[in-house]
Design brief:
about 375 residues; mainly alpha; 3-stranded mixed beta sheet; 15 helices
């Protein structure tokens, strides 16, 4: 599932950063940006919480107590946050330092779950629900739309079939540098703010703890899959009802169009529903099969080096864009205007294909100098 998440990110980012939605191939761009792009981050964040639950199950009983100077999870979370800041600085530039990329959110989720680890699973699910329910009115109060170009427009392609069902902001995030803007960006307005995005990780952790009590039973998988289908249906129904209103309702209403920026209430339900259904399905299809295949080895390596791949594919996209732009006289000249969506999608697929060879060789070197290797070295296991 983590391999799917990183593959979805790659197939989304190549087209949206190298091409424009109005450059032809409308449905290729739509597929990259929304069919796979809207579910990569939810998968990843859900698995951040689930992985924490799995890791905790392997610890001795007394390990739940927090010892800040020596706590490995706290150190890893802090390093991931630092990695997020360095990533934004190195790939996007100084202006992007406080845009709140998904890496800073992942690190924050790791820290938050570790601090709250002593709570029962139901408390994590309740906190997740509270974050999701609080997000729309708080976003409206914070002036979210003003920092994303001032309006939300229907997405080309799908709007011809289902008018108003899906909206996007007209511009990218442009938060200011003041303390208030930094804080509202972190909690509400940035690319991946705490509200509601942390709810995916909190849900993953809570369900991971419940899953351990259910002992990976078939009944638990069926219940999780059913909950996923309910989430999909509820999100779609609310989006259909909300599509008749203006796009701004994606910010301040629970009945609203689907929207990724901001992650509207119906979109969250739809994303969480697909996440739960996918997790339950993959558990039934993959986890009970002992058969090893080349595809499974490839997916396992994508998962193992997902953090490195996330950073690497951004470098391969942005650094050539900036270098060519500087050479031509404008740093951002080729940003979103280098090629067609189809060419960009093919480039993303080619990159994923090349990883089959690269990651095999990296595995032989035990992942030396990958970000995962660096994190493991920086936070060694006790003893």
């Amino acid at each position: 599932m983590r391999a799917l998440a990183i593959a979805f990110m790659v197939l989304c980012h190549f087209p949206i950063f190298l091409s424009a939605p109005d450059a032809g191939y409308t449905w290729v761009y739509f597929f990259s940006n929304h069919v796979v792009g809207d579910f990569a981050a939810p998968f990843f964040l859900f698995l951040v919480g689930l992985s924490q639950a799995v890791s905790q199950a392997r610890l001795p009983p007394g390990a739940a107590l927090l010892d800040l100077p020596r706590d490995r999870t706290m150190k890893r979370g802090a390093l991931i946050v630092l990695c997020g800041f360095l990533f934004s600085l190195a790939v996007r530039g100084p202006h992007a330092l406080f845009e709140w990329d998904v890496l800073t959110l992942i690190g924050t989720c790791v820290l938050a779950i570790r601090l709250l680890r002593g709570l029962p699973p139901a408390a994590f699910l309740g906190l997740a629900a509270a974050l999701v329910l609080a997000a729309p009115p708080l976003r409206s109060h914070s002036g979210y739309v003003a920092q994303w170009g001032g309006s939300l427009d229907p997405v080309p392609g799908i709007s011809g079939l289902l008018p108003g069902i899906l909206v996007d902001p007209v511009d990218e995030y442009a938060g200011g540098g003041g303390l208030r803007s930094i804080l509202t960006g972190f909690f509400l307005n940035g690319y991946f703010p705490v509200l509601p995005w942390m709810a995916f990780s909190l849900s993953g952790y809570g369900l991971g703890r419940l899953q351990q009590k259910a002992d990976f039973s078939r009944r638990f998988d069926l219940a999780l899959g059913a909950a996923g289908l309910v989430g999909l249906a509820a999100g779609a129904a609310l989006a259909l009802l909300g599509s008749a209103g203006p796009g701004l309702r994606a910010v301040d209403s629970y009945v609203a169009p689907l929207s990724f920026y901001p992650d509207s209430f119906p979109m969250f339900l739809f994303q969480l529903g697909l996440t739960l259904a996918t997790f339950a399905l993959l558990r039934r299809l993959c986890d009970r099969s002992p058969r090893e295949t080349g595809l499974r080895r490839y997916l396992r390596r994508l998962s193992r080096y997902s953090l490195t791949i996330y950073v690497l594919h951004h470098i391969l996209i942005f650094w050539p864009l900036w270098i060519m732009g500087w050479a031509a006289g404008s740093r951002t000249m080729f940003y979103e205007h280098l090629c067609s969506p189809l060419a960009a999608f093919i480039a993303g697929a080619a990159f994923l294909g090349s990883l089959a060879v690269l990651l095999e060789r990296w595995d032989r070197a035990r992942g030396r100098w990958s970000l995962e290797w660096i994190l493991a070295r920086a936070t060694p296991k006790p003893g």
